[in-house]
Amino acid sequence: MNDFNLEYDKDWVKKDWVKSGQFKEENSYNCARKILKKSGRPTAMIAMNNFSTIGLMRTVKDLKIKVPKKLSIIGFDDAEWMKICTPSITTISQPAYVMDMTAATLILDLMEGPDLRQPRKVVLKTTLIERESVSIFNK
Fold first, then answer.
1. Using omega within 30 degrees of 0 as the cis cutoff, is the peptide bond preceding 42 cis?
2. Which of 95, 40, 43, 100 minimizes the C-alpha distance to 66?
């Protein structure tokens, strides 16, 4: 959020709602559990990859939290299972093929010569896929 100068509620950090599960299911499960067992917990959470989403969903199931009635969830990567679980998971889909081609092109450019070794910032378009796990999409 800071890197892109996006506004956010500084209380999120004070309340310890911003955590890294290091993209691992078990770590994400433990982080989500710490957040969701607190009073005044958030009403929405975003997981940053498939494993994080699974960890978050396990936490929600164990704590018997109703999604999306009590907690909205957004996943990342749009894995096939996100379409068929209940509720289906709203997710951010990345253009995997374009990411692969861009990475390969950058590597080939690096191999071509030193003048092409300048750092580059590449931003690719993502897509929000609206499903059942977010309350505003279910009205």
1. no
2. 43
